[in-house]
Amino acid sequence: MYWEPFFKGRILGDITAADIDAFINHMGNLPLSAARKNSVILAGTKPIRWAFSKGKIETDPTRGHILFSGYEKEQNILSPNAAVAAFRADWKDEKVKLANMLAAVTGMRQGEILALRMQDIGPDCLLGEADTV
Prior knowledge:
Shape: elongated
Radius of gyration: 22 Å
Largest sheet: none
């Protein structure tokens, strides 16, 4: 989404440190958090470093670059009273409410909840791989 359009048509071995600098400067102009920018940069530099370590390219253009700094956005946790009020409210989609309740009581993340299958759900429990053996 970020790397491919910027380096479109380029061969991996032709990418230079100046190209990586230009990409980092380009990322600096995007309205993303510092953490997100760094995540995007690392998503491309790690494979380039791997290619260098395996002898696929002659030089490593990723060394010596400085990443973005900034404060992470504080993540607030709902108070118990706010959580109770949220789940008592009317929800447009009961499936979304159920997924949020599941996350609240189990600590499961969105991807884990989305990966659940009907056979993972019992009448009063969730069955994990260890439970089904």
